[in-house]
Every structure is written in C-alpha cells, then in structure tokens.
Specification:
2 domains, elongated, Ribosomal Protein L25, Chain P, alpha/beta, 7 helices, Alpha/beta knot
Length: 249
C-alpha cells in the first residue's frame, strides 16, 4: 500500500481529514494515477500511522479520510544513530539507505584521518538534500514511522563526543579480535540499551590513534567477526544484529 509522510499540521483529527501537499500530491495524481476511494497509509513522522481513503485528488493537494490510526509497529525499541565516515562515490548513499531500512533514527557523516573525501565542500545544499531524500524514500519503502535525520558532516572529535553519550557506543574496529559484538549484545539481553551509537570507518579503516581516542572517550571497540566488511555494509550488519537480539526474540 502506498505510504506518505505529512506534517502534524496537515492532520485534522477532529474532522478526520489529512491533506497531502506538493510533490507527494502530484505523485499520487500523476505518477501513481490513484483514484478516489483508493487506500493509502499516511504517517505523521512521529511514529503514528493513519489508514486512509482518498477523497479529493488534485495536482497540488490530495485530501484523505482517516479510517483508523495506530502506533507504527516498524520502529525498534532502541534509538540507533549511525556515524558513517565520509566515503567516495555512492557508498555513503548506500549506507544511508540501508541504515534507514535496518532501523537507524539518524545518520551522521564524519571525517577521519583516512577519509578520501573531505568535509571541505561537503556542506553543499544539493548533497544534503539528496541524502535526505534517500532517507525519506527508504523510510517510505520499508514502512518506517519516522523519516530518519541525515545530519551535516562533523569532525572526528565532534563525532566521538556525541557518540559517547549513548548507552551502547559501538566503535567498529577490524583489528579488535577479542571483544566481539555478539558477546556484548548477549550480555545486554536482560537490559536492552535505549540509545545506541554505531561508528563506522572509511575504506581504509581507522588509524590506531583514532581507535585509542575512541576508547579513551568511552566507546567500545568491537570486532564484527572474521570477515572484513565494506564500509557501506558495516552499519547495516550491526543494525541487523541489534534487531536479531532485541526485536526478533
């Protein structure tokens, strides 16, 4: 069923009407060629779903009648933020898309010493808009109750400061051969974390100095197994492990 996000101000609970505006309205009218009476799901972006029927269809505004509402079941019981090092090509786009699909509430790009891509020039509006659009499209596709935030890039030190605030702060480090992610999650089974940080390095990984700085800041250096994952795959892998441990049991 088609899924759309709207602002709370476009939801009239009293009259049981929701208005969809702009590009989404045009998409319903022209691309999807939906008709009055068709069903669709509208989400307020704060975790609540509305099952609706189309009442009026125009290119600039579509009105829907609310039939029922409920809490979106797709949101994890924890809030996970992915801190993804800047990477070249479309790898960051892939990481954003998969992080949203696997349950992250936000993605924060950052610069580390081995990044090929640098922050200079990264704050261009077009890049930020494209990344946020990728997150929005992924959220619609997988039935999320929110559109995860994609932040502007930050420095390595800023990233560490923010990531360390989580109940579980994971620093994915391929040279960590003793402390593995699975064991840590198993130990937390009876007390699941409320907030999780997942820090993923660039193509060349983290330097030993960065790993030491992360450990000193309070992050947990964890290995992800015997196989070396691509940078765009690591966050999704960790999120899948979190889901398996705390959602699927």
């Amino acid at each position: 069923m088609p899924r759309f996000f709207v602002s709370k101000e476009n939801i009239n609970e009293e009259e049981r009407i929701i208005s969809i505006l702009g590009e989404d309205a045009f998409h319903i009218a022209r691309s999807l060629r939906m008709a009055v009476g068709d069903d669709l799901t509208v989400c307020d972006g704060e975790g609540r779903d509305y099952e609706c029927k189309l009442l009026k269809i125009r290119d600039s505004q579509v009105d829907c009648e609310i039939e029922e509402s409920s809490v979106c079941p797709a949101e994890p019981p924890y809030k996970a933020t992915v801190y993804q090092a800047l990477v070249k090509g479309e790898r960051l786009d892939v990481s954003i898309q998969k992080s949203v699909e696997f349950g992250a509430v936000s993605v924060v790009p950052f610069e580390s010493s081995r990044c090929i891509v640098r922050m200079k020039g990264e704050k261009e509006g077009s890049k930020s808009q494209r990344r946020r659009r990728i997150a929005a499209e992924a959220a619609k596709q997988c039935g999320r109750g929110i559109i995860p935030l994609v932040a502007e890039p930050v420095s390595f030190s800023e990233m560490l400061k923010e990531a360390a605030k989580a109940d579980l702060a994971i620093f994915c480090y391929e040279k960590e051969g003793e402390r593995m992610l699975g064991r840590v999650l198993e130990d937390m089974r009876n007390e699941p974390p409320q907030n999780v940080s997942i820090v993923v390095g660039p193509e060349g990984g983290f330097s030993p100095e960065e790993a030491k700085a992360a450990e000193d800041a309070g992050l947990s250096l964890l290995g992800l197994g015997k196989r070396i994952l691509r940078t765009e795959s690591a966050a999704a892998f960790v999120l899948a492990c979190l889901s398996s441990e705390f959602e699927l049991r």
